[in-house]
Amino acid sequence: MDKYIWLIPLLPLAGFIINGLGRNTLPKAVIGFLGSFLVLISFGISVGAFFQVKSTGPFNVNLFDWFSFGNFKVSFAFLIDQLSAIMLLIITGVGFLIHMYSAGYMKEDAGYGKFFAYLNLFVFFMLLLVMGSNYLVMFIGWEGVGLCSYLLIGFWYTNPDYADAAKKAFIMNRIGDLGFIIAIFLIILYFGSASFGDIFTKAGTKDYAGVNFTLITMLLFVGAVGKSAQIPLFTWLPDAMAGPTPVSALIHAATMVTAGVYMIARSNILFTLAPITQHTIAVIGLATAVLGALIALTQTDIKKVLAYSTVSQLGYMFLGLGVGAYTGAFFHVLTHAFFKALLFLGAGSVIHAVSGEQDMRKMGGLKGKLPITFITMLIGTIAISGIPPFAGFFSKDEILAHTFTHSTTMYVIGVITAMFTSFYMFRMLYLTFYGKFRGTHEQEHHLHESPPTMTLPLIVLAILSVVGGFVGVPESLGGHHELGQFLAPVFKSSAALVSEVELSKQTEWTLMALSVAGALVALGYAYVKYNKNGEVPVADDAERPALVDLSYHKFYIDELYDTVIRKPLDALSVFFYKVVDRLGIDGIVNGLGKGALETSKGLRLLQTGNVGFYIFMMVVGIISILMYLVIKV
Question: What H or E segment, with its residue span, contains residue 100?
Answer without folding.
Answer: helix 82-105
